[in-house]
From TrEMBL:
<dbReference type="InterPro" id="IPR044777">
    <property type="entry name" value="SLC17A9-like"/>
</dbReference>
<feature type="domain" description="Major facilitator superfamily (MFS) profile">
    <location>
        <begin position="25"/>
        <end position="456"/>
    </location>
</feature>
<dbReference type="InterPro" id="IPR020846">
    <property type="entry name" value="MFS_dom"/>
</dbReference>
<feature type="transmembrane region" description="Helical">
    <location>
        <begin position="117"/>
        <end position="135"/>
    </location>
</feature>
<feature type="transmembrane region" description="Helical">
    <location>
        <begin position="155"/>
        <end position="177"/>
    </location>
</feature>
<feature type="transmembrane region" description="Helical">
    <location>
        <begin position="400"/>
        <end position="424"/>
    </location>
</feature>
<keyword id="KW-0812">Transmembrane</keyword>
<dbReference type="GO" id="GO:0016020">
    <property type="term" value="C:membrane"/>
</dbReference>
<feature type="transmembrane region" description="Helical">
    <location>
        <begin position="275"/>
        <end position="295"/>
    </location>
</feature>
<protein>
    <submittedName>
        <fullName>Solute carrier family 17 member 9</fullName>
    </submittedName>
</protein>
<dbReference type="GO" id="GO:0015291">
    <property type="term" value="F:secondary active transmembrane transporter activity"/>
</dbReference>
<dbReference type="InterPro" id="IPR050382">
    <property type="entry name" value="MFS_Na/Anion_cotransporter"/>
</dbReference>
<feature type="transmembrane region" description="Helical">
    <location>
        <begin position="184"/>
        <end position="204"/>
    </location>
</feature>
<dbReference type="GO" id="GO:0015867">
    <property type="term" value="P:ATP transport"/>
</dbReference>
<dbReference type="Pfam" id="PF07690">
    <property type="entry name" value="MFS_1"/>
</dbReference>
<keyword id="KW-1133">Transmembrane helix</keyword>
<keyword id="KW-0472">Membrane</keyword>
C-alpha cells in the first residue's frame, strides 16, 4: 500500500537541500558546468592549429569536430534514468572523473601512431559519451533536491556555466594556444576537471555513497511499473514531435556556430586576436541568457498565487512548467501577447538566423564580431521557448523527454557540424555554412509555430489540461 500523499511530500522535503547546502551545490555545479564546456570547446578552439600539425582538410576537421556528438547522442536518456534511480550528483561525479582524465590524456594519443584523425575521433567520441550523462542527471538532481520556489534561479545560475566555460576557453585557451601550443589547452581543461572532482569527492560526497552507486550500476537497475514512460502516448502528439524537431534545429544551429566560428575568424581574419572573437560573443550571451530567463520567470509569476484573485473566467488556468497557476483573463492575454514561448522561439530561431546570414556577407572584422555576438546571444532565447516547452508538455516525465530531445540535438551536432565541413570544403566559401544555419533555424521555427503547444500530453485523455 503506497504511503499517503502528505507522508510522501514530507519525505521529499526532507531529502531536499537546506539553504546552505543549496548554495554550496549551486556554486559547485556552476563550476562543473563551466568545466564541462571548457573541455567540450577545447577542440573547436584548437582545430586550426591541429589541422596544420596533422594536415587535415575541412572534411577531416569536420569529422574530428563532429565526433564528440556521435557519443553525446547515445547517453542522454540513460543519464536521466540513472540520475533518477542512483542520484544525479553521483552520476555527474563518476562521468566527470572519466571525461577529465580522457581530455587530459588526449594529446598523448597523438604519439601512439600516425593515424591522428582516428585517435582524436575516438577520444572525442568517448568524451561525448560521458558528457551526455551530465545534463539529464543534473536535471534529475535539481528537480529532487531544490525547493520549487528556488528551482528557477538555481537552474539559471547553473546553466550559465555553459557560457562561462566557453568564454574561459575562448580567453585563456587562446592565450595558451599562442604561448604553449594546442596540447596545453587539453592538459589544463582536463586537469582542472579532475581537481573539481577531487573537491566534490572530499567535501560534498561520501565514499560510501559512491561505492553504493557503482554497485547499483554494476548490478543493473530494475524498472518499476509506475516509473515507465508512456512513450506511445507521447509520440502520438504532434506537439511532442514539434518540440523535438525544434530542439534539433536550435541545437544544430548552435553547434555549427560553436564548432566552426573560431576557424572562420582565424582563416577570414588571420591578423585578428583569438581572444577577441572567442570571448566577445560569449560576453554577450551571458546577459542575454539571464535576461531571457528573468523575463520568462517574471511573466510566469504574474499567474502565481498572490498575483491574482483566483481563477479567471470559467475557472481558466494556465499550466506552466508542470504547475497550475490561476490567472486572470487579462494576465493570460498579457502572457500570450507580450512574450509567449512562440515569441521567444522567433527571437532564438528566427532573428538569430538573420544575423548568421549577415556573417556570410561582410568582410569587416568588427561587423563579423557584432553579427556573431548577436546570433549567439539571441540563440539563448531558445532556452525559454523551445526547451521550456518540453516541461510544459510532460511534467511527470520531463527528464526522460528532455533526454530524447537532447539526443535529437546531439544528432544535430553530428549531422550539422560534419555537413558544414563538407560544404565549406566543396564550395570554398563560408557563406554556404551560414546559409545552412539559417535554413535549419527557419525550418525549426516554422515547425514550432505550426504544431507547438503547451498543453500537457502525459496524462490520460480524460485528464488532459484544457
Amino acid at each position: 500500500m503506497p504511503p499517503p500523499e502528505p507522508a510522501r511530500r514530507d519525505s521529499a522535503e526532507d531529502a531536499q537541500w537546506s539553504r546552505p547546502e543549496c548554495q554550496a551545490w549551486t556554486a559547485t555545479l556552476l563550476l562543473g558546468t563551466c568545466l564541462l564546456y571548457c573541455t567540450r570547446v577545447s577542440m573547436p578552439v584548437c582545430a586550426v592549429s591541429m589541422s596544420q600539425d596533422f594536415g587535415w582538410n575541412k572534411k577531416e576537421a569536420g569529422i574530428a569536430l563532429s565526433s564528440f556528438f556521435w557519443g553525446y547522442c547515445l547517453t542522454q536518456v540513460a543519464g536521466g534514468h540513472l540520475g533518477d534511480r542512483v542520484g544525479g550528483e553521483k552520476i555527474i561525479l563518476l562521468s566527470a572523473t572519466a571525461w577529465g582524465f580522457i581530455t587530459a590524456a588526449t594529446p598523448l594519443l597523438t604519439h601512439l601512431g600516425g593515424a591522428h584523425l582516428v585517435f582524436m575521433t575516438f577520444s572525442r567520441i568517448l568524451t561525448g559519451l560521458l558528457q551526455g550523462l551530465y545534463f539529464p542527471a543534473l536535471t534529475s538532481l535539481l528537480s529532487q533536491k531544490v525547493r520549487e520556489s528556488e528551482r528557477a534561479f538555481t537552474y539559471s545560475a547553473v546553466g550559465c556555466g555553459s557560457q562561462f566555460g566557453t568564454l574561459m576557453t575562448g580567453a585563456v585557451g587562446s592565450l595558451l594556444l599562442d604561448w604553449y601550443g594546442w596540447q596545453s589547452v587539453f592538459y589544463v581543461s582536463g586537469g582542472l576537471t579532475l581537481l573539481w572532482v577531487c573537491y566534490v569527492y572530499r567535501y560534498l560526497l561520501s565514499e560510501q555513497d559512491l561505492i553504493l552507486a557503482v554497485g547499483v550500476l554494476v548490478q543493473g537497475l530494475p524498472v518499476a511499473r509506475d516509473t515507465r514512460v508512456p512513450w506511445r502516448q507521447l509520440f502520438r502528439k504532434p506537439s511532442v514531435w514539434a518540440a523535438i524537431f525544434s530542439q534539433f534545429s536550435a541545437a544544430c544551429s548552435f553547434f555549427i556556430l560553436l564548432s566552426w566560428l573560431p576557424t572562420f575568424f582565424k582563416e577570414t581574419f588571420p591578423s585578428s586576436k583569438g581572444w577577441v572573437f572567442n570571448v566577445v560573443p560569449w560576453l554577450v550571451a551571458i546577459p542575454a541568457s539571464l535576461f531571457s530567463g528573468f523575463l520568462s520567470d517574471h511573466l510566469i509569476s504574474q499567474g502565481e498565487p498572490g498575483h491574482g484573485d483566483g481563477p479567471g473566467p470559467c475557472g481558466l488556468r494556465l499550466t506552466l512548467g508542470g504547475r497550475e497557476a490561476p490567472v486572470l483573463g487579462v494576465q493570460l492575454q498579457r502572457w500570450e501577447e507580450a512574450m509567449a514561448p512562440e515569441d521567444q522561439a522567433v527571437m532564438g530561431l528566427g532573428l538569430s538566423s538573420v544575423f548568421a546570414l549577415c556573417l556570410g556577407h561582410t568582410s569587416s572584422f568588427c561587423k563579423s564580431v557584432f553579427f556573431a555576438s548577436a546570433s549567439i546571444g539571441l540563440q539563448t532565447f531558445n532556452h525559454s521557448g523551445v526547451s521550456v516547452n518540453i516541461q510544459d508538455l510532460a511534467p511527470s516525465c520531463a527528464g526522460v523527454l528532455f533526454g530524447v530531445a537532447n539526443t535529437a540535438g546531439a544528432l544535430a551536432g553530428v549531422v550539422g557540424v560534419g555537413l558544414s565541413g563538407y560544404l565549406i570544403e566543396s564550395t570554398g566559401s563560408w557563406t554556404s555554412m551560414f546559409n545552412l544555419v539559417a535554413a535549419i533555424s527557419s525550418l525549426g521555427l516554422c515547425t514550432f509555430l505550426l504544431f507547438g503547444k503547451a498543453q500537457r500530453v502525459d496524462l490520460s485523455p480524460s485528464r488532459e489540461d484544457l
